[in-house]
Design a protein that fits this description.
The chain is mostly beta strands. It has one helix spanning 175-185; strands spanning 10-18, 22-25, 28-31, 37-39, 42-45, 51-56, 61-64, 69-78, 81-90, 92-96, 103-109, 114-127, 130-145, 148-152, 157-162, 171-172.
């Protein structure tokens, strides 16, 4: 991964937004709108009236729901692989992509666990002081912390992480739960 894209290089672009999502870049705050550029080390926030959708340069779509906070630390792009590393501390996010010939790995550190995905569609969100992570389509989502590690490999299954405990066994998410989760990150 020594081919990291430098901090000043664009790693994505806003494709749609609701409300007034913002970014902090070089200690300056900016409102994000359609066509706003996203860079490595950007701190991206949505308030309770905002949502945001970013198309990364590998065509992965990162969607953020109301009240979300994400820091996009590092982005590597090689001929046959991509890796995005970030921090996700509140709200809800969803990463979707078309099946590609390259592997896309997304790693988000949260206060409760680290999420590592090589899927085509996963969702994560903080609900009532717990972290829920679901695989909607793709290979795998791994959730780990000091107390354990679990992997979701079945479509429409999810993992819950409570404060102070390891990730729970994956369980099937029913259609109603999936639709509620997806709705949190859909930008209209």
């Amino acid at each position: 991964m020594n081919n990291a894209i430098s901090v000043s290089t664009e790693i994505g672009v806003v494709t749609s937004s609701e409300g007034y999502p913002s970014v902090i870049r070089n200690n300056q705050s900016y409102i994000l709108d359609r066509e706003s550029r996203i860079f490595a080390n950007d701190v991206v926030d949505t308030d309770e009236q905002s949502k945001l959708q970013i198309r990364m340069i590998d065509n992965t779509i990162l969607s953020m729901g109301h009240g979300s906070h994400v820091v996009l630390h590092r982005y590597w792009k090689m001929p046959d692989a991509v890796r995005l590393e970030g921090t996700f501390t509140k709200g809800a996010i969803r990463a979707t992509r078309d099946t590609q010939n390259i592997e896309v790995e997304i790693v988000f550190k949260t206060p409760l666990a680290t999420i590592q995905s090589i899927s085509e569609d996963f969702w994560a969100g903080f609900i009532d002081r717990t972290l829920d992570v679901a695989l909607f389509n793709g290979s795998s989502v791994i959730v780990r912390n000091r107390s354990g590690e679990r992997e979701v490999v079945e479509r429409n299954h999810g993992i819950k992480v409570n404060i102070g405990s390891g990730p729970q066994e994956p369980i099937l998410w029913y259609d109603s739960r999936i639709e509620v989760a997806k709705a949190k990150t859909i930008v209209e």
